[in-house]
Amino acid sequence: MTVDPRIAAITARIVERSKPSRELYLHRVRNAAAKGVHRSVLGCGNLAHGFAVCSPSEKVALSGDTVPNLGIITSYNDMLSAHQPFETYPAMIREAAAEAGGIAQVAGGVPAMCDGVTQGQPGMELSLFSRDLIAMAAGIGLSHNMFDSTVYLGVCDKIVPGLMIAAMTFGHLPAVFIPAGPMTTGLPNDEKARVRQLYAEGKIGRDELLDAESKSYHGPGTCTFYGTANSNQMVMEIMGFHMPGASFINPGTPLRDALTREATKRALAITALGNEFTPAGEMIDERSIVNGVIGLHATGGSTNHTMHLVAMARAAGIMLTWQDISELSDIIPLLARVYPNGLADVNHFHAAGGIGYLIGQLLKNGMIHEDVRTVFGHGLQAYAIDVKLGENGTVARERAPDVSHDPKVLATIDKPFQATGGLKMLTGNLGKAVIKISAVKPERHIIEAPAKIFHDQASLNDAFKEGKLEGDFVAVVRFQGPKANGMPELHKLTTVLGILQDRGQMVALITDGRMSGASGKVPSAIHMTPEAKDGGPISRIREGDIIRLDATTGKINVLVSDAELDAREPAEADLSGNEFGMGRELFAPFRAMTGAAEHGASVFFH
């Protein structure tokens, strides 16, 4: 089935807008691919350094140009549950590469920080910038020019987007992304949220809270709620960078290992030395990016991807905008209910049919581009599958079912959970923002209330404890943008605002900071740009100003005249406390150089 004309029109608009940058990008990719790796003509000292620790047979192989060498970029560390499984992957990849007649080397490691650990802590102010640092670190590993293909081992929030930026920068090389999968289901996410609220209200103590948190986050793999980490996995699969069905298989299982070995062999099969050369920068195109956005809307995915997808696209010369994302949201129905947009976790999502079922539904109804290149071959139909363990430890696939195994978790396009996607852009006299509405009840899509102003989330939480947050209000938490303090997630606000909403108050949030993939039931206009540090209109809001947030029309305004708003002096904030400690001083150049949220909040793209 051909793609919906509305989707085709948006895609064509992106193609037209991207022509100058995309043509320049492809020219560079093709020039780099034409030069090849040519290890045999490296200086002898260069090559000797590159394979010094290899076996004699590997050295002989790498001395020529006929044996492919696979570069591994890994985000392994053994503190973070999502990345700990990668400890054993290099040995597995080297073994699988040898079976396929190739060689594999760890080209480099990249940092992987956990927003779950740093929530509300100083380290969170490094989080968003770690994405660009990861891209740079991967670039250093690949700069040795020893490799014919690459595999990227990464899962969580900033890691996969950073690795994707690196993969596009080295777009003349094939790139296969290998996930580690989610941890098994622990304490249900709604129960965890309930315990958090009880703790915030002072009804239970820290021991009870820690016990609940430990039962939620209890083993290897990603957290099981549908935040940025699991949104990353969906996006990479629907854009064709995973092997079909790879995203949500639990760590330490035979199928997980079989998929890793298969991905290794596929990465070697698509080098320039074979007949299926698939350089990553040419494989991806505007249709692939649109498919990623469509997947995000259909699943109610992470708000962070309104920045990450923009930055990832720009790394390939593709100019995606918030307007494109918002218009696609008006077309794509919400087909998944996964926490915080439902009670199920990602294991339930996978068991209900998962990404294979979702892609099948979208393809059947012309809601996604099928005619795209992937690391698996040509066409997205190959991803509308159910993956299983086959004979002798291989991977077996069969067509995904046409019927959801759990209609409460995965719906059909004929009867979606809601007619539109989960993410929208808001515009008005305060600038631009994004809002995730998939978990917000319809009666809260429009809120008009006076502003209460804060310059950090701790101040709002203190006001809550002191009983000062009475009545209806819009919390304005500003000076939280990338230039101010690195744009930390303000996830500590979720519980407090949720409690007030449950008490019957009409509350909303406006911020130039982030709320992460866990953005939930409180209407939150986030990523406001221009940010307060840049003198954006959010810095001119005064205590008590009436603010109207209308997610139905995509509007956000402070209800004062343009003349009055323009005449006001921007507020100022003392940000000196954000400049030092926990490594924040090392990131001063990033804060100074970063672009706006709508352009990806990146030091690379403005």
Automatic annotation (TrEMBL):
Protein residues bound to [4Fe-4S] cluster: 156, 223
Dihydroxy-acid/6-phosphogluconate dehydratase C-terminal domain residues: 408-601
Record keywords, A-Z: 4Fe-4S, Carbohydrate metabolism, Gluconate utilization, Iron, Iron-sulfur, Lyase, Metal-binding
GO molecular function (one): 4 iron, 4 sulfur cluster binding
Domain Dihydroxy-acid/6-phosphogluconate dehydratase N-terminal per the UniProt entry, residue ranges: 68-381
Alphabetized PROSITE patterns for the sequence: ILVD_EDD_1, ILVD_EDD_2
Protein name: Phosphogluconate dehydratase
